[in-house]
Design a protein that fits this description.
102 residues, alpha+beta, 6-stranded antiparallel sheet, 40% strand
Length: 102
């Protein structure tokens, strides 16, 4: 379940990363996946724009795409890539569900 706080926090994180090099990973269906390098170009209230290095193309993704893990974004810190969102474990999912019920 996605809550507004998650989206607000993610929007803030994305805004802080505008101009930074990232790696976007996702599925193309039928067991095909992609991983592309780009930069976060702009962030809006419902989505953000990524400019890819290859062919000088852009793509847009919603914050929900990230929260539902339809796509994953790793941020380059100058030495290595690290996930924008930490991986969810079963325990953290259970804890989150309990917090939302309270």
């Amino acid at each position: 379940m996605i809550c507004r706080n998650d989206i607000s926090t993610l929007k803030s994180d994305i805004n802080d990363k505008i101009g930074q090099k990232i790696m976007v990973k996702g599925s193309l269906g039928r067991s095909k996946e992609f991983a592309k390098e780009g930069t976060i170009e702009k962030a809006y209230s419902n989505l953000f724009i990524v400019k890819y290095e290859e062919n000088d193309r852009t793509a847009s993704y919603t914050y929900t795409d990230l929260l539902t893990r339809a796509v994953e974004v790793d941020v380059f810190n100058g030495e290595e890539y690290s996930p924008l969102l930490p991986p969810l474990t079963v325990e953290s999912k259970k804890r989150k569900m309990k917090e939302q019920l309270v």
